[in-house]
Specification:
There is one protein chain. The chain is mainly β. 15% of the residues lie in helices and 37% in strands. The chain has 12 helices and 52 strands. Strands 1, 3, 5, 6, 8, 13, 14 and 16 form an 8-stranded mixed beta sheet that branches. Strands 17, 19, 21, 22, 25, 39 and 40 form a 7-stranded antiparallel beta sheet that branches. A hairpin with a 4-residue loop joins β50 and β51. α1 runs antiparallel to α2, α2 runs antiparallel to α3 and α2 packs parallel to α4. The longest helix is centred in the first third of the chain and has 27 residues. The chain is rod-shaped and about 165 Å long. It starts with a helix and ends with a strand.
Length: 893
């Protein structure tokens, strides 16, 4: 009857639990937060456990062991955290199995698992008597029905956290808080036995977030606390983990509370995409958007920053509460500053007699603070990364390093140096090929295989910065406006063609120098993936030179104020890619080993011309305007200038004397080019040679700051077919043939294997285009008169009369009236003159008339001559106007 009451009470209790769980499930359906995975049955009240245990004992007393096993197994599964009751249930299970084996009416339950649970549960193991302890060990390690001598047991802590593991363990990483993929890192494993009996650990495996690692030769790498301290303190006598050779396999015996340390070395995987924390793309270790998952900022081990992206909505979930590892989707997590590597489990092979037991101890709480989900409520979490990384059991010393190692992706150790930029100040010369030399230095601990290069460049024109412009211009000022470069003058990276006579024109219309062609590994965005091989193997610590040649043609168009106001600049990015093999690794084939890494080198170039030119009139304003009708020559304008702005007014048929000053632009401490010859091509019929380097002149090589001034004359002739009466012409077209001045690499640098050797900067390529300078614009106007000075002595003598004669010709078919005015007003009378000082004269059509004046100087030295003005009454313009430029004579004694 007692059994019936107990079974009826169990039925009522199960029905009540079912109804309660259904209601709570309906309420929790709206909560979408992921919960930790739990394979244990639904939590039962204590009364249910007691009733099952009571039912089992009653059935044993009624000699019904098969039914008793069902209730006892249920009770045993619910009392793992209740050692005393659990031990009583296990004893009842043992007695029940013995009854089953005697009656033969039900197969006995395999008690190996029960005995193992008793032994590895330190709480229940303490309650066993010596005889029960010995019997449990014999039955736990005996062969099963299949003849296997090895069993696998996984120990998981329950939700209460009250169960003590059979072994306490901790794994920390020595010497550093960070490492790189494929590195070998030192680790220290501490094992403390919580069992009440002796056991031998035959082998050990570490279960980490990056895979399972074996700890070889336990007997050789094991040490106690004093040996460990002595090993760490004495750097000179420290045993390297590589000395733990894989021979003489042996185990380590453990008694209760025994503590042993194991020094080992772990080889990190080269690919972290399969770590247990979810799919991690190590090539994007710094995402564009990221949020901190905790506030553990410290220099000791950094902060773990995780960004989880929703592939469908492309949003970031701010991290908060712990989640299970299985809920993380593949390729969804990114970690700032390295992927965390932590040992969260250990697999021990326990040996006793001739039987083995493989025991796996999992501690998922060691990695749960690294994974968060949901909204973070507080600024400082209770379990931040720093506290989590340095937390350890009391038996594990602090000097053994953090438990979490931050593993970074492969990092390039190659150093790239621009050898050209310091000497050119980031400038390049138009019209020739400019060479940029990059020096690639391999790291001391890496071998570089399959070294390749890829380029990306963009060009634009920006306002030229002058000294008048303010240096504190705001970002919105017009100086920040850029315009596109002309397609036919776009800078382009080039390389030598196989055929030296090849003439190439790029897609944009850029005509390249003979024997040069565009590079194929240059793009404007990331989609361009063409590369060029620089070296198949660059040994550790070695260097090589990478020449990059770029070209921009000269401007052959007529200059405008807008063209001089802008300067062209080119920004480029050089991507060096290679396969990195750590020094000391056995690797001879770059295609089979090595981590893909890249180094980026950015730079910019400002384009300059080889020479600058300045133009001016040799004799200043002309005193014979010949009656041209221009605002600068009108009678109503007193003392008008003959040059209005940059415009020079010229009478038809007049010869203008000009001066051109050439100066080579500076390129660092050197110059851009040297002169070969200079010609004036303003006349379509012939070319006037102004300078030649073979003429024996002193200036065959231009120097920094030196100028070459050349004089020439231009005959202004108006186009007869011009209908508007005026024509604008350049006062000279100066063609400069030049030779680029190359820079030389330092003596300690190796030469580049081509025809240019150690030259860089502007290269001396053949057949460079000449540089064309257009003189100032001159406006040629029709003149009704022609006037010139017929006679004027250069050095008259004191007291000797001398004559000054002018000739004026009427070039029109109309009679002209001229008004002459000799300005002889002097503060001191130095010259005595004869002739009419004011006169009105008539000129018949096409008539030429001479006007003569006689002077005599009373003093010696520099004497001012009276200025003459002749004006046309019809046109109200000046024919002769010597007031624009004072007239002087040097009188000899």
């Amino acid at each position: 009857m007692a059994l019936d009451y107990v079974l009826h009470a169990l039925d009522l209790l199960d029905e009540n639990i079912t109804l309660s769980s259904g209601a709570s499930a309906t309420k929790e359906d709206s909560q979408l937060l992921p919960m930790p995975s739990n394979d244990t049955p639904t939590q039962q009240p204590i009364s249910s456990t007691r009733l099952h245990y009571l039912a089992g004992r009653l059935l044993i007393s009624l000699n019904d062991p098969s039914r008793a096993l069902v209730h006892l197994n249920i009770a045993a599964s619910q009392t793992k955290s209740w050692p005393s009751l659990h031990l009583s249930i296990q004893r009842a299970l043992t007695a029940c199995n013995e009854r089953c084996s005697i009656l033969d009416d039900a197969p006995p339950t395999d008690m190996k698992k029960s005995f193992l649970e008793l032994l590895i549960n330190s709480g229940s193991c303490k309650l066993l008597s010596p005889k029960e302890m010995k019997d449990a060990q014999v039955k736990a390690w005996e062969c099963d029905s299949t003849g296997s001598i090895t069993r696998e047991v996984v120990w998981n802590n329950d939700d209460t956290g009250k169960l003590n593991p059979p072994f306490e363990f901790a794994v920390s990483f020595l010497n550093s808080t960070h490492a790189t993929t494929s590195d070998k890192v030192k680790a220290c494993v501490s094992i403390k036995s919580c069992l009440d009996f002796q056991v031998e650990i035959e082998s050990m495996q570490l279960v980490t977030t990056s895979g399972i690692f074996d700890v070889p030769n336990l007997s050789q790498c094991a040490m106690n606390r004093s040996q460990l301290q002595s090993l760490v303190r004495s750097e000179g006598s420290r045993r390297e983990t590589s000395s733990f050779a894989k021979h003489e396999q042996g185990g380590v015996e453990f008694n209760r509370n025994d503590l042993t340390f194991f020094m080992t070395e772990l080889t990190l995987p080269s690919n972290l995409s399969d770590v247990a924390l979810g799919g991690v793309d190590t090539s994007k270790f710094i995402p564009k958007s990221g949020r901190l998952c905790n506030m553990g900022l410290s220099h000791s081990a950094g902060n773990i920053c995780e960004s989880r992206f929703d592939n469908e909505q492309q949003k970031i979930n701010i991290n908060g509460k712990p989640i299970s590892i299985s809920s993380i989707s593949e390729s969804s997590s990114f970690f700032l500053g390295g992927v965390p590597l932590v040992c969260h489990g250990i697999v021990l092979t326990l040996k006793q007699d001739n039987s083995s037991l493989k025991l796996q101890i999992d501690r998922p709480t060691l990695i749960s603070p690294l994974l968060r989900s949901g909204v973070q409520q507080s600024m400082m979490e209770e379990s931040n990364y720093t506290a989590h990384s340095w937390y350890r059991p009391a038996h594990h010393p602090w000097f053994l390093g953090p438990r979490v190692l931050r593993v970074l992706g492969p990092r390039p150790h190659m150093h790239v140096t621009n050898l050209t930029e310091p000497q050119t100040n980031g400038k390049a010369v138009e019209g020739t090929v400019n060479r940029i030399v990059l020096k690639l230095n391999a790291g001391r601990d890496e071998d570089c295989w399959d070294v390749r290069v890829r380029l990306k460049c963009t060009s634009s024109k920006k306002p030229r910065i002058t000294s008048e412009q303010p240096t504190d211009a705001t970002p919105t000022s017009p100086n920040d406006v850029s315009i596109d470069v002309e397609p036919d003058r776009m800078p382009i990276f080039v390389r030598k063609s196989k055929d030296s006579s090849t003439k190439t024109v790029s897609e944009g219309g850029v005509t390249l120098p003979t024997g040069w062609s565009p590079r194929e590994d240059v793009g404007t965005d990331e989609s361009h993936d063409v590369t060029t091989l620089l070296s198949s193997h660059l040994e550790a610590g070695k260097s090589l030179l990478c020449p990059l040649d770029i070209f921009r043609p000269l401007d052959k168009s007529f200059p405008t104020p807008e063209s001089d106001a802008f300067t062209c600049s080119t920004s480029y990015e050089v991507v060096i890619m290679y396969k990195q093999v750590r020094a000391g690794k056995d690797s001879t084939n770059s295609n089979d080993s090595g981590d893909e890494v890249m180094v980026m080198q950015s730079g910019s170039i400002e384009w300059i011309t080889p020479f600058k030119a300045g133009f001016s009139q040799s004799k200043g304003p002309k005193p014979f305007p010949c009656g041209i009708q221009h605002s600068s020559n009108m009678l109503l304008q007193p003392n008008p200038p003959s040059v209005m702005g940059n415009e020079i007014v010229i009478a038809d048929g007049e010869r203008v004397h000009m001066r051109c000053s050439l100066k080579a632009n500076g390129l660092g401490s050197s110059v851009t080019a040297s002169l070969l010859d200079v010609t004036n091509e303003s006349s379509s019929n012939q070319k006037e040679e102004l300078y030649s380097s073979g003429s024996g002149l002193f200036m065959n090589q231009t120097n920094q700051g030196s100028k070459l001034s050349l004089s020439y004359s231009v005959l202004a002739q108006k186009d007869i077919e011009s209908a508007n009466g005026q024509e604008t012409i350049p006062l000279g077209v100066i063609s400069v043939n030049w030779k680029p001045s190359s820079l030389i690499l330092p003596d300690d640098q190796t030469m580049i294997d081509d025809e240019f050797g150690s030259a860089h900067g502007p290269l001396c390529v053949l057949n460079v285009s000449p540089m064309i300078f257009h003189g100032p614009q001159g406006k040629v106007l029709s003149s009704p008169f022609s006037a010139n000075l017929l006679k004027c002595p250069s050095t008259p003598k004191v007291g000797v009369p001398f004559a000054v004669k002018y000739q004026i010709t009427n070039k029109t078919a109309k009679s002209q009236s001229l008004v002459l005015n000799l300005n002889d007003a002097q503060d001191e009378q130095q010259l005595l003159g004869t002739g009419k000082s004011k006169e009105e004269s008539q000129l018949a059509p096409f008539e030429a008339k001479t006007f003569s004046f006689t002077f005599m100087s009373m003093v010696a030295g520099n004497v001012g001559r009276p200025s003459l003005t002749v004006s046309s009454s019809r046109h109200q313009t000046y024919v002769v106007n010597e007031t624009l430029m004072p007239q002087t004579l040097f009188v000899m004694p």
